[in-house]
Every structure is written in structure tokens, then in C-alpha cells.
Write a structure and sequence with these properties.
The complex is a heterotrimer.
Chain A (H helix, E strand, L loop, with lengths): L10 H40 L2 H4 L3 E2 L4 E2 L2 H32 L2 H16 L2 H28 L14 H25 L3 H9 L4 H12 L1 H17 L2 H6 L17 H8 L6 H31 L8
Antiparallel strand pairs in A: 1-2
Chain B lengths: L1 H26 L16 H12 L2 H7 L19 E6 L4 H15 L2 E6 L2 H10 L4 E4 L5 H11 L2 E16 L9 E2 L1 H9 L8 H6 L11 E5 L4 H13 L1 H7 L11 H5 L2 E4 L1 H11 L3 E6 H6 L3 E2 L1 E3 L5 E2 L3 H9 L23 E9 L1 E2 L2 H15 L16 H12 L2 E2 L2 E2 L4
Parallel strand pairs in B: 1-2, 1-3, 5-10, 6-7, 6-8, 13-14
Antiparallel strand pairs in B: 3-12, 4-8, 4-9, 4-12, 10-11, 14-15
Chain C lengths: L7 H8 L3 H39 L3 H5 L13 H32 L2 H16 L2 H16 L4 H26 L2 H9 L4 H29 L3 H4 L19 H9 L4 H33 L1
The chains are: A mainly alpha, B alpha/beta, C mainly alpha.
Chain lengths: ~300, ~425, ~290
């Protein structure tokens, strides 16, 4: 690799240019650092005021300035995991189909169609959810779930349409393309030799996939799923439109709730003082959680798919 | 030479990073967001003194100032006024305001951009100085007044209009006619103690209606709202249980709704959001401004007022409520639970929040001109849009408030 | 690989002499996978189809040419918001493309591996920051100090989202340019920076253009960063320091309102925005297919 300290960098032009590119990169780092710094500084008053109790408290009362993060974090985690439950089987199944089973032309078209979904802005999915999904969830889906599985605490309560179930479905729709695309790349990176060895041993197609391909790509698949999770946790607009905005924790999937991004979107404009600080502490918590999930995801996916380069 | 730079690189990078961190540290002082801006003018003392003498001596104002002729200001003096303003706040008066701003722009070329984000956000925005004026149906609390005072000085609250808050509902099987409710029953619905539409308490008030045996979904505001403030102010006046459950004074722009904990409450954003939610959620109840109820063909209830009569929300009944109270000079008054026979009990004023001492002359001039137009010519738009026109007493007091807005000690108003 | 962690029933199926059972199970599982893919595609088609059909039915000349009407009145359009989105996307790209490309150039040409992995890592983190946090950040550093919502703050927020996308795709496309090209340029006596600009970048231009278009498609639809920065403007573009309207923001406001007219405009806007984004995505797809063939 041509390094900046090689004899090839000489003269003023090269020096200026290379330093210019360095400065631009530092700007990127500076933006990131700045975001973190501002979040921390603004969240400090709330951190000092509530300490660790903030994470466990369930009140959010601007009247007496008592705030707690638990319902928002619970809502974020619940809706994201619901989304994973719906999206992962579909995505991994689709990825397997696209890489192992489908002929190339079908695979290309199908991938293309699924990626179109990724391009749709979140607010438009929210619009669709408001007018198509919510009525559908309110009437056929929640009614049926309430009638058949109503004994379980997950399916009890008012069937409003708004709530975690709708939010989970919306998020699932948004992360299916990501998980599918990444899983497809991961599965494609599995060496053909693995498959051929299994087939030579007399395994069926599915057994090959199950025993050779999936285990080989396991870390990458987990990484893809985590990327989807990270995306789901940070999603604001579509969720804010369907979650119902109630600040509480109940086991029921029918109930309305709050997620961290939707809480920030709803209250940031009107918050000041310790309320603002608490909101930004929520933002900081979200930032840290999505950061961790994304880091783990990237590490897992990097291990699987080598970065292609023309340099060696 | 390249070896030299190779050695220097890590040092350069460390220095750059350090510079970055120092710069970010300097930028991100807590005062950036939690505004405690220091804007002290030496004339603050004299200004407050003048304000006091102007405002708190009603006798001098009423007795010595003759009724001004109702000059309709259609052409404005040539000027130094700014050509664009921004304001944000209440959604309650937004249909009226958006009509005003459109008309005003055609009339004078001054473009006023308004965002309906809720009274609470409007108060925060004007306190932070990110907008030129705020709009609120809620009176500022002492803490909010103090915060604004510390930021940019005294806030003047100029009344613009008043309106009724309708109790709207969507009942399966009932498509016309009005449900009758009392304040007590309404409070119990929002407390969650009355859970079904065919509860005996509601049925007793409505013997002729067949109410469905369905759970009541109570819709409320998810944002900090002046409409909520007026509504809960009324509930606090008519239901001691409400006050004790909510705590404190029992009202505010954002309260902890008891039905949320019970799972039957839904939060919607803005008057429009509540109207939309009631429209699309079966067997729900909500509170919205009259303009929104009528524009969206929502059914609304008749409320029993303090006199004992069932009154339907309308411009007439809201006007009676607004005019039934003695108006203070600073126009900071809640007009809920009026005891007049024909008055609608859930009524409230809405105000524009403007700083007494403007620090931009052009913008201040534009604001004052608009305010003057709004309390005079603009009032003629009210009836068609289902808002209450300010009474002549209210207009007089509003005029004094508008004239008190100054730039560097000089009133910005010029006729 | 064939011998790791089999449970009893799997061993039974695997080594059973009942080939028929294994074959049927195979077909069943492959069928499930096909079902998964089918479900995904069906969801996409249903949803996209609904959006496009619903949107196109409300998409008319009024929508394109009228400005927003006061609340509750019909006959408005989104002309100002369409222009606003174009301006904001342009502004965001203007800031993000140079910064992103220079970062990508740094990563692929000038950085030593340690620094490169650090910057790459930072770019990936920045790409994963929730957009609402970016909006809050832009509010804190631009809107608050300047005491004004502005097109500039909205453009900056969008640029922050776009920079990592452009940087990573620029880096990846430049790495795909074979070293022989660089060496040939150097052998001819061209200085390093000259060779990057006139040899390597043109060689990677398709990939870079792809990255820019992906970034544009992404920021054209972003709403959360605009909530606290753009404010909306019913009078159209008034200068970079003044509030500005944008399509996604308007869709959000109109969608949650109860007014039928507004909801229809929201659908029409959704149609327009989806169309824009889809066309860009298809162009990207077509460009990258050409490249890999």
C-alpha cells in the first residue's frame, strides 16, 4: 500500500493535499466527538440529580420534575425485539433462498425488490402504517389474538391498534431489507468448497445449508441481525406515529408505550431545565446502546466478509 | 524530509485532536441549551417602573384615555419593519392564526411563519429566543416567567382571542345529537373511575340515548398543551377528586393522566392529533378547540355549567364565558367554569407572548404592527372560523399591552 | 463440519436409511425459505403498491403548484416544500460531498492502517447514530446560538448523516482501482495529489457517484433531523438563515392531522418522495451492475 511517508509524497502540493484530506477526516471525528460531548454535558444535571435511579424509575412527571428512563428503554427494547422476532425468520429465510436456491436471475430481481423497501423513507412507512396497518391491527389481528391467546398477559387489554404490536410490525418491515442484504453477502462469502463437501457426503440441500453454510456464516448472520437491531432501536418517525405515547410498562403487546427516540421527538421542543437534561440523558443512553450493538455487529460481519481491495 | 514528517505525524494528530476537544469544550457550555443568557440592560429598572405606572393604575387609563377611534389599519407606515417573523406555540388558535398570517402577508408583505407545537413548546421557544413570538393558551408559571425574565426580560402576554373546548366523542351507533355531561362525570371518565359508555352515571344524564356497552378510550394530549391547561383547570374547579389524584393545583400543560396507567388513555399530538384520534378510534372521547370540532364534523357534548344549565359549545356561549369575568390589566386570567346562565364552562383565552424589550428594532416594529392589526382588523375573521372576538374592554387592555412593547426604551407603536 | 453438535433426532434424520423422509424434510425447509422470501417480496409489493397507487390518485397539478393553505381550508399544495426539499438536499450534499470524498481519499490513499481503521470506525459509528440525535445536535450547535431556525441548520444536520455514507463508498471504490494505475501515473512523473485527482478518482467515479446518490436518497427522506432545525415555511424559501419547509416534515404533519385534504396531500407527497428515492436507487443499482460485469 502506498503510504504517506513513502517517497511518493513530496512537494508542497502533495503535502497540502494530504493534510487537507486528514483535516476532513478529523472533521468527521470532531463531529462524532462533539455529539458525544454535548450529550454528556447536557445530560450531566440529570445524571447528578437522579443518579442510577434514573434507569429504574418509571415516572415522567414534569409537574414535580421526577423523571425515569425505564418505560422508554423497555419500549425501545420490546419493539425492537418484536421486530426481530418477525423479521429474522423472514430475512434469513429469504437470504438462504436468494443465495442457495434461487437461480441467478430470480435472485437479482428479488434482491432488487427487497432493497427497494430499504429506500422508502421512514415517515412514508409511518403514513402507510397509520392508515393501513393500524386499522388492520385493531380489527383482524388484535381481535384474533385476543380471542385465541387472550389468556396470556401478552394479549390482554384494550385493542386500540396503536401500540407495541403495530410498532413491532412496522420496525420489522424496516429492518427486513437490511438483514436480508447483509445475510446474503455473508452467505455468499461462504466458500463453495464447504457446500460441495457436504453434497459429496450425500447430504440434501437443506442439510448442506443447515450443517455447512449456516454454521460457517454464523457470526456474520448474527452481525447482520444485530445491525438490524441497531437500526430498529434508533428508528424515530414511523414508531412515533404508531406507538401511542403512553409512559408505562405492561406485559401486553396491545398496549401503547413509548420508545426513547419517540419520547425525544415528542418532548424536546417543550422541555427545559431538568426535563431537557433527562431527555438528553435518554438520548445518551440510546446512543451508547446503539453504539455497542453496531460495534459488535460490525466486528462480527467484518470477520466474515473480507474487504475487497485492488491493492494486493 | 518525509522521515521528519513521519515522526511529526503522531504529534500533529494529537495536537489536532486536542484542539478539537478544546474547541468542543468551549462550544458546549451548559448555557448553550439551558439558556441563562445574560442580557441586562441598564434601562431595565426604568422600563419596569414605566410599565408599572402604565399598567397597574387602571383609573388613569380608563378615566383619562378616551376611547380610541376604531382605526382600521390597512396601510402601514413605510418602514423599517422586518419582512419575516417566526412564532411557535399553541395549536388551539392555529386555524385562526394561519388565516391571519396568510391575509397579513397579502396585505403587508410581512411573512409570519408559525408552527403549532403546543403551548409548552411555544413558551420554551420564546424563552430560548429561537422564535420572535410565542403563542400559548396557558399562563406562564412563576418558574417560567422567571426563566424568561432571566433570558430576555419581561414577557408581555397579549390576548388574541378566546374559544371553547369541546368534549368530542365517537360513539358507535350514535351519529348525531349530543351527549350531556357534567364536570364531575367528565372528571371521573378521565380519572378512569367511569370506564364504560353505558355507566349509570352517564346514562342518568342521557335517558334518551342508547349508549353502547363499550370501554371508553380517553384521548388526551401527548405534548405540553395550553388546551390541556384550560381543560384540567376546569376539571380541577369541578372535581376535588381530580385535584387530589393529579396532585398540586390539579392542572397544568402536562399532567400524568390516570387513564394512561389503566391502559385506556391515548396521547395525541396537537389539537389536530386529538381530533384525528377521536375520529378514527371507536368509542373514544377527547377535548379539542371548537374550530377543530366543527372543521372535522365531530360530535361534541353539552356541558352543565356552574349556573346549572346544559350549554352547547359555540361562539356565543364561549363569548359569554370570556366576558363574564372582570379582566385584569395584564389579561392573565383563566375563564373556566363561568357561572353565567348561557356561558360554556370550558373556555379560555389564548395569548401571544412577546418580550417587553425587543432587541431588534425591525422585528419589534413588525411584531407590534401585527399585534395591532390582529386585535382590531383581525378580529373580524373570528366568527367565521368559530373563535370569540375580543370584547371592547379586552381590546382596550390589549392595546395598552401592545403599546408598552419597546425598543431601547421607546415604544414601538406608532399609529 | 458435518459432525458438529448433532442432536439425536437430527442424527436420526441424517443417517437414517429413510431417504424419502430426508428428501421431504429438505423440500419442506427449502419451501419455508422460499416462503420467507415470498413474504418479504409480497410485503414490499403490497406496501409500495399501496403507497404509489394511493399517492398517484391524489397527485395533481394543484399539489405541485399551490402553496399551503391555512388550516382547515382546502386547495393547498406543497410547492414550497418540494422546493425546500431540493434546496436542503442540495445544501446537505454541498457540505457532505467534499468532506466525505476527502475523507474517503484519506482513508484509501494517505492513511496509515492504524489511523485508517480509527477513522473508518468513527465513520461507521456516525452512520449508526440515530437521526433524532443528529437533529438535537444540530439544534444545539446552530439553532440555539444563532437564535433562529434555518435552512442552514437543517442542511448541516442532513450533511452529518450523509458524510459517512459518501466517505465509506468513496473509500471502497477507490480501493478497487488497481494499483497499476497509480504506479503508472507516478512513473510518468505526475505528483501524488495530481494522480489521485485525475487518475484514481475518475477510475472510481461510478462507485463514488453511487455513494453520493445513496446519500441523497437517504437524506431526501429524513424527517427527524428536520423537526428541530427546519421549522417549516409556508411562504417558501426565504434565505439560508430563515426557516424552510421540506416534504418529509410536511408529510409527518399532515399525516397525523384529521383533515382529509391534508391526508390526501400527504399521500401525494409520499408518492413523489418515494418515486424520487426509487428512481435514485434504481439508478444506483444499474450503475453498480455495469461496474461489476
Amino acid at each position: 500500500m502506498l503510504k504517506s511517508n513513502s517517497r511518493n509524497v513530496s512537494g508542497l502540493g502533495d503535502f497540502v493535499f494530504s493534510r487537507l484530506t486528514l483535516i476532513c477526516s478529523l472533521v468527521l471525528i470532531a463531529i462524532l466527538v462533539n455529539i458525544l460531548v454535548i450529550l454528556i454535558i447536557q445530560a450531566l444535571p440529570a445524571i447528578k440529580e437522579f443518579g442510577a435511579a434514573f434507569l429504574g424509575s418509571t415516572t415522567w412527571n414534569p409537574v414535580n420534575d421526577q423523571y425515569g428512563a425505564l418505560p422508554a428503554i423497555y419500549g425501545t427494547l420490546l419493539s425492537s425485539f418484536l421486530a426481530l422476532i418477525v423479521a429474522v425468520p423472514i430475512s434469513i429465510g429469504a437470504a438462504i433462498f436468494l443465495t442457495e436456491i434461487a437461480p441467478v436471475w430470480l435472485s437479482n430481481i428479488a434482491s432488487f425488490v427487497i432493497e427497494m423497501l430499504a429506500a422508502i423513507p421512514s415517515v412514508i412507512i409511518g403514513l402507510w402504517a397509520l392508515f393501513v396497518l393500524i386499522p388492520a391491527v385493531r380489527d383482524p389481528i388484535e381481535k384474533w389474538l385476543g380471542n385465541t391467546l387472550g389468556a396470556l398477559p401478552f394479549f390482554q387489554g384494550n385493542q386500540l391498534g396503536f401500540g407495541f404490536l403495530a410498532a413491532g410490525i412496522v420496525l420489522a418491515l424496516m429492518i427486513i431489507p437490511i438483514i436480508t442484504a447483509m445475510s446474503r453477502d455473508v452467505l455468499r462469502a461462504v466458500p463453495q468448497a464447504q457446500r460441495e463437501a457436504m453434497l459429496a457426503l450425500g447430504a440434501t440441500r437443506w442439510e448442506t445449508i443447515r450443517k455447512a453454510v449456516l454454521p460457517y456464516g454464523r457470526s456474520g448472520l448474527v452481525g447482520a441481525v444485530l445491525l438490524g437491531l441497531g437500526r430498529a432501536m434508533g428508528e424515530t418517525m414511523a414508531v412515533a406515529m404508531v406507538i401511542g405515547n403512553a409512559y408505562r410498562i405492561t406485559p401486553s403487546l396491545f398496549s401503547t408505550g413509548t420508545t426513547v427516540p419517540s419520547k425525544i421527538a415528542n418532548e424536546f421542543g417543550e422541555a427545559s431545565g431538568i426535563q431537557l437534561s433527562s431527555l438528553l440523558e435518554l438520548a445518551l443512553i440510546l446512543f451508547v446502546i446503539t453504539l455497542l450493538v453496531n460495534i459488535i455487529a460490525r466486528l462480527l460481519v467484518w470477520r466474515m466478509t473480507a474487504v475487497k481491495t485492488g491493492k494486493d | 524530509m518525509s522521515k521528519f514528517f513521519k515522526k511529526l505525524m503522531p504529534v500533529l494528530m494529537a495536537l489536532t485532536l486536542a484542539a478539537v476537544i478544546v474547541v468542543t469544550g468551549c462550544n458546549s457550555t451548559p448555557t448553550t441549551i439551558t439558556a441563562t443568557a445574560t442580557k441586562t440592560t441598564s434601562s431595565t429598572a426604568t422600563v419596569t417602573a414605566t410599565l408599572t405606572t402604565n399598567i397597574t393604575s387602571p383609573s388613569t387609563i380608563i378615566a383619562t384615555t378616551p376611547l380610541p377611534p376604531t382605526t382600521v389599519v390597512t396601510t402601514l407606515p413605510p418602514i423599517t419593519q422586518a419582512t419575516s417573523l417566526t412564532g411557535s406555540g399553541a395549536t388551539f388558535p392555529q386555524p385562526l392564526y394561519s388565516q391571519w398570517f396568510a391575509e397579513y402577508a397579502t396585505l403587508t408583505g410581512v411573512k409570519i411563519n408559525y408552527n403549532g407545537v403546543g403551548s409548552g413548546a411555544g413558551i420554551t421557544a420564546i424563552t430560548n429566543g429561537t422564535v420572535d413570538f410565542g403563542a400559548s393558551d396557558a399562563l406562564l408559571t412563576d418558574a417560567q416567567l422567571a426563566a424568561a425574565q432571566a433570558a430576555y426580560g419581561t414577557l408581555v402576554t397579549v390576548p388574541m382571542t378566546a374559544d371553547a373546548i369541546c368534549i368530542v366523542y365517537s360513539l358507535s351507533g350514535i351519529s348525531s345529537g349530543q351527549v350531556k355531561l357534567t364536570g364531575d362525570v367528565l372528571a371521573n371518565i378521565y380519572l378512569g373511575t367511569i370506564t364504560k359508555w353505558n355507566d349509570p352515571a352517564i346514562a342518568a344524564l342521557n335517558p334518551t340515548l342508547t349508549l353502547p356497552n363499550a370501554s371508553i378510550t380517553t384521548i388526551h394530549r401527548s405534548d405540553s398543551s395550553g388546551t390541556t391547561n384550560i381543560y384540567t383547570n376546569y376539571l380541577a374547579k369541578v372535581s376535588p377528586t381530580w385535584v387530589s389524584t393529579i396532585g398540586g393545583a390539579g392542572f397544568g400543560t402536562a399532567v400524568s393522566w390516570p387513564t394512561d396507567a389503566k391502559g385506556t388513555g391515548v396521547g395525541a399530538s396537537g389539537n389536530a392529533g386529538v381530533a384525528g384520534s377521536v375520529q378514527s378510534t371507536p368509542n373514544s372521547i377527547g377535548y379539542v378547540g371548537l374550530a377543530y370540532a366543527i372543521q372535522n364534523n365531530l360530535l361534541y357534548a353539552q356541558m352543565k355549567n356552574a349556573f346549572g344549565a346544559y350549554v352547547s359549545p359555540s361562539v356565543a356561549s364561549a363569548t359569554m364565558a370570556a366576558n363574564g369575568f372582570t379582566l385584569p390589566n395584564d389579561m392573565r386570567i383563566m375563564v373556566t367554569n363561568s357561572a353565567d346562565a348561557g356561558a360554556y364552562p370550558i373556555t379560555g383565552f389564548t395569548w401571544l407572548l412577546v418580550y417587553l424589550n425587543q432587541n431588534d428594532q425591525a422585528k419589534g416594529k413588525a411584531i407590534v404592527n401585527f399585534l395591532w392589526w390582529a386585535i382590531h382588523t383581525g378580529q373580524s375573521d373570528c366568527p367565521a372560523l368559530n373563535y370569540v372576538q375580543l370584547s371592547s374592554t379586552a381590546v382596550l387592555k390589549a392595546e395598552v399591552l401592545v403599546k408598552s412593547i419597546k425598543f431601547q426604551g421607546v415604544s414601538l407603536y406608532s399609529s | 463440519m458435518a459432525h458438529d453438535g448433532c442432536k439425536d433426532w437430527q442424527r436420526l434424520i441424517m443417517y437414517s436409511s429413510n431417504l424419502v423422509a430426508r428428501k421431504w424434510f429438505n423440500r419442506f425447509m427449502l419451501g419455508l425459505c422460499a416462503l420467507g422470501a415470498g413474504l418479504a417480496i409480497v410485503f414490499v409489493c403490497l406496501m409500495l403498491g399501496y403507497i404509489l397507487i394511493q399517492g398517484v390518485s391524489f397527485f395533481n397539478l394543484d399539489f405541485l403548484t399551490h402553496t399551503a393553505a391555512p388550516i382547515g381550508q382546502t386547495g393547498g399544495g406543497m410547492r414550497n416544500e418540494i422546493i425546500g426539499t431540493l434546496i436542503l438536499v442540495g445544501l446537505g450534499s454541498l457540505i457532505a460531498v467534499p468532506l466525505g470524498m476527502m475523507t474517503g481519499i484519506f482513508l484509501s490513499e494517505f492513511a496509515n492502517p492504524l489511523v485508517a481503521s480509527g477513522v473508518r470506525f468513527a465513520a461507521d459509528i456516525l452512520a449508526g447514530v440515530p437521526s433524532i440525535v443528529v437533529g438535537v445536535f444540530a439544534y444545539a450547535i446552530i439553532v440555539r446560538p444563532l437564535h433562529s431556525y434555518s435552512a442552514f441548520s437543517a442542511g448541516a444536520a442532513l450533511a452529518i448523516i450523509m458524510i459517512p455514507i459518501v466517505a465509506r463508498t468513496t473509500e471502497e471504490s477507490m480501493r478497487l482501482v488497481p494499483n497499476s494505475l497509480r504506479e503508472a501515473a507516478l512513473a510518468l512523473g505526475i505528483t501524488r495529489w495530481r494522480s489521485v485527482l485525475s487518475v484514481v478518482i475518475p477510475g472510481a467515479i461510478t462507485g463514488i457517484a453511487t455513494g453520493i446518490m445513496l446519500g441523497v436518497a437517504r437524506i431526501a427522506g429524513e424527517t427527524a433531523p428536520l423537526i428541530f432545525t427546519a421549522f417549516g415555511n409556508s411562504f417558501g424559501f426565504d434565505g439560508l438563515g430563515k426557516p424552510i419547509g421540506a416534504l418529509p416534515l410536511q408529510i409527518y404533519r399532515y399525516a397525523i392531522s384529521p383533515y382529509k385534504d391534508w391526508q390526501q396531500q400527504a399521500w401525494a407527497a409520499a408518492f413523489l418522495l418515494s418515486l424520487l428515492v426509487l428512481v435514485i436507487s434504481m439508478a444506483v443499482r444499474w450503475l453498480s451492475r455495469k461496474r461489476s460485469s
